[in-house]
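User: Could you write out the 3D structure of this protein bound to 2-acetamido-2-deoxy-beta-D-glucopyranose? I've included everything you need below.
Assistant: Certainly. Input first, then the structure.
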Amino acid sequence: MRYINVCLALAAAVLAVFASTGKFAFPPKHLFTGLLRFAAFTAESDTVLMTDDTSDHNVLQRRKKKPDRKVHNICDDFPPDVPPPNTNTTTYLCVDSHGCCNFTTVQSAVDAVGNYSSNRTVIWINSGFYYEKVIVAKTKPNITFQGQGYMSTAIAWNDTAASANGTFNSGSVQVFATNFIAQNISFMNVAPIPKPGAMDAQAVAVRVSGDEAAFWGCGFFGAQDTLHDDKGRHYFKECFIQGSIDFIFGNGRSLYENCQLISMANPVPLGKRSVDGSVTAQGRVTKDENTGFSFVNCSIGGSGRIWLGRAWRPYSRAVFAFTNMSDIIAPEGWNNFNDPTREQTVFYGEYNCTGSGANMTMRAPFGRRLNDTDVSPFLNTSFIDGDVWLQPLTS
Ligand SMILES: *[C@@H]1O[C@H](CO)[C@@H](O)[C@H](O)[C@H]1NC(C)=O
Ligand SMILES: *[C@@H]1O[C@H](CO)[C@@H](O)[C@H](O)[C@H]1NC(C)=O
Ligand SMILES: *[C@@H]1O[C@H](CO)[C@@H](O)[C@H](O)[C@H]1NC(C)=O
Ligand SMILES: *[C@@H]1O[C@H](CO)[C@@H](O)[C@H](O)[C@H]1NC(C)=O
Ligand SMILES: *[C@@H]1O[C@H](CO)[C@@H](O)[C@H](O)[C@H]1NC(C)=O
Ligand SMILES: *[C@@H]1O[C@H](CO)[C@@H](O)[C@H](O)[C@H]1NC(C)=O
Ligand SMILES: *[C@@H]1O[C@H](CO)[C@@H](O)[C@H](O)[C@H]1NC(C)=O
Ligand SMILES: *[C@@H]1O[C@H](CO)[C@@H](O)[C@H](O)[C@H]1NC(C)=O
Ligand SMILES: *[C@@H]1O[C@H](CO)[C@@H](O)[C@H](O)[C@H]1NC(C)=O
Ligand SMILES: *[C@@H]1O[C@H](CO)[C@@H](O)[C@H](O)[C@H]1NC(C)=O
Ligand SMILES: *[C@@H]1O[C@H](CO)[C@@H](O)[C@H](O)[C@H]1NC(C)=O
Ligand SMILES: *[C@@H]1O[C@H](CO)[C@@H](O)[C@H](O)[C@H]1NC(C)=O
């Protein structure tokens, strides 16, 4: 029964997260519906399958009310061809929260991967909600997390800067290994949304600290500091990224293609000019570092009034190209993090963006309108040396 309660409590926690954002439309709601269904399914199945816990009156009553109910094995629907057979260069491990294959937690599968294996290990993760903190240590390169869709497969935890001894340790999933890949899975931090002015409430969904990481069709759900793009070269394609303040932050060198960036900052009352969020807080410290975030063909929507970026570190670098921006973007676009000297050193650029938020008439003077020459290093995977390491999507 404890397991059921955990699932329901989690679904409730996730509901709280999404409900408090008000008119949050498409993906979270669906993800959330999936989670609720998952929790309900778990509860029902356990009710039927439970035979040893006769002390639980609720269960007995429910059993009596539905005497004709067919008792079926929860694993009957498990796909027969999973996991695929290992090949010479790829090992497959399988995770299912109901125990229908070898591992019930993602971390236990990661732990079973050989140290410093030069072959790839694909961890196939069945639909479901995995409430656990997952660490992919430096000793585990070449791991793939293969989910069943970012709205049906999620790893979530609820640490905050306060509970984890710092924002950097709060990530629900933390990747320190090289050559990490994730496909069709979500990363969530379901800690309560911080009240305005709250201290140490930052709650990271994923921290990516390994070089050469790729995320395809993934979801990132949180509020403040959702995606810690910490260090190394990273690729994000067709991802859904939700947050409020600095929701993509860190000192990585990353290309984001065709991603949806969704703000859940509080709506700003009509007539007020305040800004209550930022898409990025890129952390380039010196001019010699080749780091920065490039967004190509993305879209920005959601609620609140937010900046495209703020200068978390002096040489902060971010570029938005061919990106559609809704009117939630503050007219000035960019922010110096209360340090005017940073206006001389940041690199903030926009190129061929569309939508009412992309109107550059009122932009801060240190936000640049890039020309074809300026923008060309940022437009494709050469920005992250993709030709050296980025593999085409496998399925
Ligand atoms: C990797 O695959 C090769 C080729 O099959 C095999 O010889 C080697 O033992 C594998 N290495 C590991 C660490 O599993
Ligand atoms: C896999 O390894 C076996 C035995 O080492 C070898 O016979 C086979 O040709 C290899 N297959 C591939 C696809 O490399
Ligand atoms: C579970 O592990 C065993 C032993 O490694 C392996 O033979 C089997 O194929 C695995 N089954 C699944 C469903 O992963
Ligand atoms: C990896 O190394 C650690 C310690 O260095 C050890 O505890 C662990 O058992 C190793 N894992 C595997 C799968 O070999
Ligand atoms: C495994 O990781 C090493 C170190 O990052 C890398 O050189 C190698 O190409 C990777 N192998 C595969 C199969 O991805
Ligand atoms: C995380 O959730 C658990 C269970 O609801 C709760 O006991 C714990 O206090 C939460 N942690 C934080 C940091 O909110
Ligand atoms: C918390 O982090 C600080 C550095 O940020 C470190 O000095 C301290 O030892 C950490 N405390 C614990 C309990 O890990
Ligand atoms: C831009 O993104 C949209 C939405 O993800 C996609 O349908 C379209 O194909 C992308 N265009 C290019 C040139 O990649
Ligand atoms: C992008 O905008 C520039 C003007 O800033 C224009 O010259 C160029 O043709 C545009 N390029 C594309 C591919 O739309
Ligand atoms: C851009 O903003 C300026 C000033 O707010 C306004 O005058 C102009 O009409 C806007 N341009 C477009 C294309 O909306
Ligand atoms: C593009 O802008 C840069 C300054 O940002 C300038 O040096 C360069 O001449 C411009 N190139 C073109 C083709 O306009
Ligand atoms: C991911 O999901 C999309 C949409 O459901 C599907 O088209 C694609 O094949 C999946 N890719 C992988 C690698 O799982």
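Residues 235 and 386 are 8 Å apart (CA to CA).
User: Perfect, thank you.
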